[in-house]
Specification:
- Chain A: Keywords: Copper.
- The complex is a heterodimer of chains A (200) and B (153).
- Chain A is α+β, with helices and mostly antiparallel strands and 200 residues long.
- Chain A has six helices and nine strands; from the N terminus they run ααβββαβαβαββββα.
- Chain A has a single domain, classed as Glutaredoxin (3-Layer(aba) Sandwich).
- In chain A, the strands form two sheets. A seven-stranded mixed β-sheet of chain A has the order 2-1-5-4-3-8-9, with helices on both faces. In chain A, strands 6-7 form a two-stranded antiparallel ribbon.
- The two termini of chain A are 30 Å apart.
- In chain B, the strands form two sheets. In chain B, strands 1, 2, 3, 4, 5, 8, 9, 10, 11 and 12 form a ten-stranded mixed β-sheet that branches. In chain B, strands 6-7 form a two-stranded antiparallel sheet.
- Classes of the chains: A alpha+beta (200), B mainly beta (153).
- Chains A and B meet through helix 2, helix 3, strand 6 and strand 7 of A and strand 7 and strand 10 of B.
- Strand 7 of chain A pairs antiparallel with strand 7 of chain B, so a sheet runs across the interface.
- The structure holds copper (II) ion.
- The site of copper (II) ion has 4 residues of chain B, from strand 10.
């Protein structure tokens, strides 16, 4: 019953092949006229941030080195994209089984104002327990996003606010090198092979 | 007051029930459980137009939320946002899905938390066919849709 549109089908042949090779989906191919186009996420070792996980323990990029890493940005007030991505990731981890125990899997909240460690813990209890929620001071979240070349913005909406944010899932090798991105609208069949590549 | 509208024990596969209005059939109406009532809820459904005239979904109403509205998740340059959808086309002879990652009903201002197994009514308004009220089944926060394999489709 998956109905996610496969954006890859909408890309031109060459551009599609290129974007797919780079694992960046349409983001890269459609972004070439924008400032910062072609900028890849930094290697984990070159990132810099101090965040807290949903158990209240500090997390820095250096903690991820030595294991392959899977990261995405989101927030728990998000009704559509975030639970969908968390379900997908939970399914992938289940498919990989114990092999996935070697992964660092993190959701970095772009809404640290509402997503305290306690809030993240309650939310994540609905998904695969290997997913770790990260939050912290806004400048630290901004530093983390900068390292991934990810973006987020707060948007007033109906007396409340929502967040626009980078929706792909970032993959890194165990030594911290950037590997690929699983685009939100990418055909989900391509996800597991991409994750297996960082596990080898 | 809403407690009277929410049945706590919905029959199995509630979301597989089919509702019709004119040439339109509406099925797979489901939602995800929420933690508390502060977060927005979500509403997904599938509409099939068996007629020869194009129609469009132009609004939703429900006692479960103060501000229900139609949204579309779009990803531009890798960034996801959810603009309002003024009208969701339901072309003649085609099916349209409100489904994870695309069109959805955004249930802002929930009157109560949505718990797995609950159900609540949503009235859909179509430009030509008019209104139809469907029962929405609340699935888990992790759900990706109802399993209607046995519904004889
Ligand atoms: Cu929305």
């Amino acid at each position: 019953m998956r109905t996610r549109r496969a954006v890859i089908l909408g890309l031109g042949g060459t551009a599609g092949a290129l974007a797919f090779t780079l694992g960046l989906g349409w983001w890269k191919s459609r972004n070439s006229a924008q400032p910062g186009a072609g900028l890849l996420p930094l290697p984990v070792a070159d990132m810099s941030f101090n965040l807290s996980n949903h158990r209240g323990n500090p997390v820095q990029p250096a903690d991820w080195i030595g294991r392959p890493t899977m990261v995405f940005f989101g927030f728990t007030w998000c009704p559509d994209v975030c639970p969908t991505t968390l379900s997908d990731i939970s399914d992938w981890l289940a498919d990989l089984g114990p092999e996935a125990d070697r992964l660092n899997v993190a959701l970095i909240s772009v809404d640290p104002e509402r997503d305290t460690p306690t809030v993240l813990a309650e939310y994540l209890s609905n998904f695969d327990r290997r997913i770790v929620g990260l939050t912290g001071q806004l400048p630290e979240v901004e530093k983390a996003a900068a390292g991934f070349r990810a973006k987020f913005e707060k948007l007033p909406r109906d007396g409340d606010y929502t967040m626009n944010h980078t929706a792909g899932v970032f993959l890194f090798h165990a030594d911290g090198r950037f590997a690929s991105i699983i685009d939100f609208h990418e055909d989900r069949r391509f996800a597991l092979p991409k994750i297996r590549r960082i596990l080898t | 007051m809403l407690s009277t509208l929410l049945t706590l024990t919905a029959p199995a596969a509630f979301a597989c029930e089919i509702f019709t209005v004119g040439d339109l059939s509406v099925e797979h109406a489901w939602s995800r459980a929420t933690i508390g009532a502060d977060r927005p809820g979500v509403f997904y459904v599938e509409v099939t137009n068996a007629g020869t005239t194009d129609d469009a979904l132009i609004g939703i109403a429900t006692p479960a939320a103060g501000m229900p509205m139609l949204h579309e998740t779009v990803v531009t340059n890798g960034i996801a946002s959810m603009p309002h959808a003024m009208s969701i086309p339901v072309p003649a002879g085609q099916s349209v899905k409100l489904a994870p990652g695309g069109y959805h009903g955004m249930l802002t201002g929930l009157t109560t938390a949505l718990n797995e197994g609950d159900s609540f009514p949503v009235t859909l308004t179509f430009e030509k066919a008019g209104e139809v009220t469907v029962n929405v089944e609340v699935l888990s926060l992790r759900a990706e849709g109802p399993d209607c394999e046995h519904a004889g489709q």
